[in-house]
Write a structure and sequence with these properties.
Blueprint lengths: L14 E13 L12 E12 L6 H12 L7 H15 L4 E9 L7 E9 L1
Antiparallel strand pairs: 1-2, 2-3, 3-4
Length: 121
């Protein structure tokens, strides 16, 4: 039986997709050595498809992401996104995670680079 879709993000009956946007956290990330000498701000948008019963506040999400970010020394945003999404799918009852990460100022004061991935189990 095919699940009935009840929102635009792929949630089925008994599920919901929660969106957490504009979460600013800091990490060591970058291709160049000088980029990895100091924590850089990153802006995260996270969309979690979970059972209706699963509750996660924005503060709880940010705190847990900070823990997962601390040991990271990735060069690419894509690798960092994969790392975080793997944790979410493994440790929380998520069926689907969509994550966007932007790196403000990566190409100068006015430019941002970013990545967006979607993973499901």
């Amino acid at each position: 039986m095919t699940p009935v879709q009840c929102d635009g993000c792929g949630a089925s009956i008994g599920e919901r997709t929660e969106s957490y946007t504009g979460i600013e956290l800091h990490a060591l990330i970058g291709v160049y050595e000088w980029e990895r000498e100091v924590l850089r701000p990153l802006v995260f948008d996270v969309h979690l498809t979970t059972p209706d019963s699963f509750k996660l506040s924005r503060a709880e999400l940010a705190a847990q992401m900070t823990v997962w970010l601390q040991p990271c020394r990735y060069r690419l945003l894509e690798a960092l996104a994969e790392h975080l999404v793997r944790h979410m799918l493994r440790e929380w009852p998520c069926r689907r995670v969509v994550m966007g990460i932007e790196k403000p100022g990566a190409l100068g004061d006015l430019a941002r680079v970013g990545v967006r991935i979607a993973r499901s189990v």
